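dumping the sequnces here before i forget
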Amino acid sequence: MSKGIIHLLDTTLRDGSHAVSHEYTLEQITAIAGGLDAAGVEYIEVTHGDGLAGSSFNYGRSLVNEEDMLVAAARVIKNGKLTVLLLPGIATVENLERAAHCGAKAVRVATHVTEADIGEQHIGIAKKLGLQAFGFLMMSHMVPPEKVLEQAKLLEAYGADIIYIADSAGAMLPEDVKARIGIVTDAVKVPVGFHAHNNLSLATANSLAAIESGASFLDGTCRGLGAGAGNTQMEVLVGVLSKAGYQSSVDFYKIMDVAEDLVEPVMHRPQVVRNSPLMLGYAGVYSSFLLHTYRAAEKFQLDPRDIIAELGRRRMVGGQEDMIVDVAYQLAQTKNSV
Amino acid sequence: MNKIKVAVIGPGNIGSDLMYKILKSKHLEMGLITGIVESEGIKRAQAMGISTSIEGVNAVIADPAIKIVFDATGAKAHLNHAPLLKQAGKIAIDLTPAAIGPYVVPCVNLDQLQEEPNLNMVTCAGQATVPIINAIHQVAGAKYAEIVASISSKSAGPGTRQNIDEFTETTSRAIVEVGGAHKGKAIIVLNPAEPPIMMCNTVYVEVENPDEEAIRDAVNRIVKEIQLYVPGYRLRVPPILDGHKVTTIIEVEGAGDFLPKYSGNLDIITSAAVLVAEKIAEKLLAKEVHA
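..and the predicted 3d for all of it:
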């Protein structure tokens, strides 16, 4: 007997974009989006890793123009919903309107876990544009469950259709996930989702913990391709959900084929938990800092783990990629003065 | 010694900080602070012996001695205030995102704008980063400039939060219009860490001519100039060149006049506004002497 339906969102073409330094080509986007759609994925997220308007010096430039990317994906998505990510402070309502014009059907408005109010405007406009609006709380490990709940309630009041709790640093243990998802699902009426990172090798386990606590939406990426040590591996998740007695709309064989035939060939490196992503999870640092940290470590001749540990001590949040150079510069000055 | 009488509309955090700075000014006399209700800010000003009113802009218009008016309300309110102030012959210094008049960043373009009846103070990030962009542009040519402003959650007020797009859009425009870059982009990140972080700004400029020495000298010069009116303005990371990309990081610690020191983001915009008023006042006083 089925324990219920789990809605799946694939973010290979958004979170996975970090792992290929935002260098997806239009051909790759078309093939992967089409494959995901044919495999039955309900929500297919396509954007620069840092969302709409993310292409920048600070986060890395996209190879392909944002609107071309969305139009290409929209053309091949027949059954699923083309979804975009929007971080208030980076993208604006104007970016959202253009994305909707290009065929986006849903938007995830993502803020740091304590700053939901900066997304009120964007959730409101999304609803006016007829888009499905997700509220997405990043770095949820940084605050106690009660604070997550307070912010989730704000998102619900702003009109969010779905509320996501994101473990952006891949820093949570299953107990941390259960506490946060549990308290939110008990108190809000809208569905709740969970977005994991695999920095502590717990993405799949944490995703299971989330649905056991009442979540009904989960994120994944093919081959786990994503920032840091990547996300929950979608094809694995589909198999695990099936074994655990849950239903999803995704075909197990077809999603495995997308992962092996379409995604694996475009990967820049195997998606494993190397030392630096492990440090991200351990220190609670935003996963997309990884590749920027490697570059800064090389430039300033430092151990990337030291940079990550210091970023964690300073309690840096998502979007503060610029502070990697700041930390590296200060560490190098200290090292040279000894 | 002669002073020019000024008023502040909007007795919130920004308005109150302006008041403290005006009280220290050589050329400005704190004539009036107005609001629309008996707020905490109005009561504080009263307790300090400053004239107050809850008649908003009308009280300001009614006093012909007031020559310069700081508007620290909101964009919608300033759209109403601006024509009234202009009609009454008062110079408006607009700290809202309304931007009816030209953007002014004191150490970049104030000298060209002193005849304008309405001046807009851009945003805090604009005040902090546009001078750096312009300094680099002068010596190396800015094809593109991008800034990331990190601000403590505690110093981002409800106005900024309800319309964060206005912040990035206004700052991007000022990067081009005042900074001189061909294209501009602005990003803002709020960080809730405790104790609150200082305002931190990263400035990336894609230059035509990556002359490291000229860029470093230009940045050092402009930092010293800004420090004259914002003593807590500091270079955290001096310009680093990576091909044609120049990265510079600056920090702004507030003066702690009314707002806490971590609110450097608010301090830099109020300091810049008061400096603009002082320059205008100097001119007005010089005219009086000649008359």
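Residues 124-260 of chain B form a domain with the Dihydrodipicolinate Reductase; domain 2 fold (CATH 3.30.360.10).
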